[in-house]
Design a protein that fits this description.
Low-confidence stretches: 125-129
Helix content: 40-55%
Distance between the termini: 42 Å
Largest sheet: 5 strands, parallel
Order of helices and strands: EHEHEHEHEHEEEEHEHHEE
């Protein structure tokens, strides 16, 4: 049973969403603000967190930033209806997905299940003798899907499940272009729609992380209007 942390200062959302998730077979922990959630996470991490952005004491952005210092745990943001800035900033800070308020609880459940499936695949709980599970080396890059580990020039780089899947898809075929639609198919289930901005934000975050290991990292090339390509260095 997967444990989901739901963090929101709206008690109605906490009550209704937690009831829905529990009915779907999840174990749910609820928190009224980011600081309360962080205190609990420092003791034991859940399998996934669903975070509201605007909260007292510690907002969702600050909480995500602190989480990303120590874990690649999947995170979904709950964003304001028309606030695109929140969506883009959240993705660039390391969120895996976002759902706009007001939202369908069925949609949220689908997003949670999709992200957990991706996490299980990356963690090696769904194991098969395929290219997706073998250790991959591309120049200075080494990826081990079964351990969810990435290194560049011997330095470890911590990636979220979405970032890992995108890098893996690009690096599997150096020199070949992957369109945004193809990358969406890799990172998200068919029933989950995301726009181009979501993929672009994940790629920017991925590049930033790789450049922490090597400031000259340039293996991921943007082909404007087409997509992205991995160039083996």
């Amino acid at each position: 049973m997967s444990k989901i942390a739901l963090v929101d200062d709206d008690r109605n959302i906490l009550t209704s969403v937690s009831m829905t998730l529990e009915a779907e077979g999840f174990e749910v922990e609820t928190y009224n603000d980011g600081q309360q959630a962080l205190d609990a996470f420092n003791k034991k991490l859940p399998d996934m967190a669903v975070l509201d952005i605007k909260m007292p004491r510690m907002d969702g952005m600050d909480l995500l930033q602190r989480l990303r210092q120590k874990t690649a745990m999947p995170v979904i943001f709950l964003t304001s209806k028309d606030d695109e800035i929140d969506e883009v900033l959240g993705l660039r800070m390391g969120a895996d997905d976002y759902v706009k308020k007001p939202f369908s609880q069925r949609l949220l459940v689908e997003r949670i299940r999709a992200l957990l499936r991706r996490q299980e695949a990356v963690d090696g709980e769904i194991v098969g003798d395929t290219e997706d599970t073998k250790i991959m080396e591309r120049g200075e890059l080494t990826m081990d899907p079964l351990r969810h580990s990435v290194s560049w020039k011997g330095q470890d780089v911590t990636l979220t499940v979405t970032e890992f899947l995108l890098l893996q898809a690009l690096a599997q075929r150096p020199g070949f272009v992957k369109s945004r639609d193809q990358l969406m198919d890799v990172a998200y289930d068919d029933q989950v729609y995301v726009d181009d901005r979501t993929i672009d934000s994940h790629i920017k975050r991925l590049r930033k992380k790789m450049r922490t290991a090597d400031s000259d990292f340039s293996a991921i090339e943007t082909l404007y209007g087409i997509g992205y390509r991995y160039n083996e260095e």
